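Table S2 (continued). Query chain:
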Amino acid sequence: MANEKVLNQVSEVVKSFPHSRDHTLWRARSIEQIIQDKSSTGCTDDALLFKHFASFVRIPVVYVETVEKSWLERLGTRNPFPIEGHVFCDATLGCDIVVPVDPRHGKTEIIEGYYIRDPKGARVKYEVLGKGPDYTQIHLREGDNFEESATRLITEKNIMQAVYKVFKKK
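Corresponding output:
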């Protein structure tokens, strides 16, 4: 698909921004500041860059905040920090085709859900905590409703599992 090639080209532009190790910049800069500094602090900035550059080729993009599924399953059993999360983007191609994208690595190989490959090549599953224009709109900053959002996701998941078990018995 031609638009998928465009998504991968946008990812190449994002890749041209080196990662900064200055953690004081994490979620502290606007897209204009990220571009001016010519550096990214990681997946949050990468998603903002991807969304910005995709807008030039008229591809609508939504910021998608996720956490590793295994991290969610361990929540409550140990200290939740560091957060084992990742930021993806949902790019809309055509009128209704939504493609999950890892902003730095291009179109994902995903059929359903959000995955990336770990250094050993294994697929790591991620659960969506929120979608929106950027991180400030979905209230998932460390210390700002993060645990509340993660707890809500776990509660919803547990309710769905309970409903499934009831219907499975019938």
